[in-house]
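Fold these two proteins, one after the other.
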Amino acid sequence: MRLRFAPSPTGHLHVGGARTALFNWLLARRSGGAFVLRVEDTDRNRSRPEHVDAILNGLRWLGIDWDEGPCFQAAGAERHRADALRLLAAGRAYRDFTPREEFERARDAAVSAGSGAVTRLARRLAARVPPADGERRAAAGEPFAVRFLVPDGETAWRDLVHGAMRFANAEIDDFVILRGDGTPTYNLAVASDDADAAITHVLRGDDHLSNTPKQILLYEALGRPVPEFGHLPMILGPDGRRLSKRHGARAVDAFRAEGVLPAAMVNFLALLGWSPGTDEELLSRDELVERFSLERVLKKGAVFDPAKLFWMNGRYIARMEAGELDAALRRALSRAGVAGDGIALGEEAFARMAAALAPRSRTFAEMVRLARPYLGPVREYDAKAARRSWYRDPAGAAAILEAVGDRLEAVPWEAEALEEGLRALAGELGVGAGKVFQPLRLALTGSPASPGIFDVLLILGRGRSLGRVERAVRRIAGES
């Protein structure tokens, strides 16, 4: 198999394009075939080098490597033109001197008159110029478009996803393959490029279904082997409509910046329109390659659910090895510009913090937010938690925290000793452990939720923990 991914560099790599690239890559790797990367840069007004870089970087981040390319469609312009002129010489295409404005007026009038009037409209308008007259005008340098002469009958293929597909050729108007300025149109360029690269399988989105009969006709007219076609279900928003910006559709690099892991992103994308045949959801790259098949590609659209992606990413974070987790968190902190406000955690404390935050984090951006209280001073206390834990009985809360501070100064700084000491303190004070832990948790982190309180104490260390308890007592007394 020879498959390809052919993005247009008019923007970043979005989830739909990334899913298409992934399915082609999985099929190529599963079959032992080749994955070709082609950049379709013929839209000179919208194509940008920075978009090419963004697409290539997005693919590299996902681990989607290519065997050939990137090749650029614009480099094949002469071949595209030669193919169009070959079709013209063979009588499979014709010149059309009709000005665009005149054609659009005639089309609008034909639409108003009924669908039958639209059929073969371009052919009828072009036929007003006799062949000999057309040859003369072309030789004189008058611009003209080249239209493909759609034959009678129907165009059929067995789609790799949808099964038998048929299009009546009468519903396909003679389409332009070469514009008046000599540039090729999309369908000609794609068919020419795929034939030149010996692509055997074209796997792309359902939005290309209407292009497929045109491209099959071009292959046949050019005498080239017709590849097999498969059309993937569209990616939908939660409302069942095609995914768009109003659904929060984002480029792949936005999810990367948010702290999504590439392995999680690949796993999530693979399940957008494909099923492994089981209830399994967490599949490694190797497992995806081994199990991927077009037989399990779904025909209906797949709903893009960011919450599901972040849940899956959280599972991947929780499964990371300690050293890998620490390094990833340090990189995320660096990207976020979190330097620790001059407070540096030792290796052991940092590793304990990363391990404690991992099960509570769906992304590394979220983990960075959760890590801030351990890397710098507590700047704010959660107001609702403070009302509940401190200000219902300010004197009582302050007394408990003062007693906690005394106990923390006295016990060995080990998890077992800390737990034993604070639980014993709660008993001595005649209150439940929560009445000790919650005011302390708020004092240490500014939040009512955190990892286990003893993990928090070990991460911060004795001196910093005592300082935060003292500051909380002053805050309750209205002194700071």
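Now the second one:
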Amino acid sequence: MDYVKAFLTGGVICALVQILMDKTKLMPGRIMVLLVCTGAALGFLGVYEPFISWAGTGASVPLLGFGNTLFKGVKESIQEQGALGLFLGGLKASAAGISSALIFGYLGALIFEPKMKD
């Protein structure tokens, strides 16, 4: 049942974002920033952690979850290191995800022939 809940939750998030992309004139980059900032704001409000506990990876994998991870990292790092944690915490908490995105993106570019859209 956990897999079904995660699948449906992630699917609903992606469907809502697709509707946002189709119905507004916002560029994809701005929508991505909006999602990350929304995830961080929901983490700040204390809403996103209970949602992740209920939905599992369906809530933690999309960009909303990435924003929440950044917020949690900054919050913990500020408590440990003070103001310096503002700059270090988010990167420290999300380093594995950022690194894997870069590595797999590079491997994909090596395997396939990337080209510009016409």
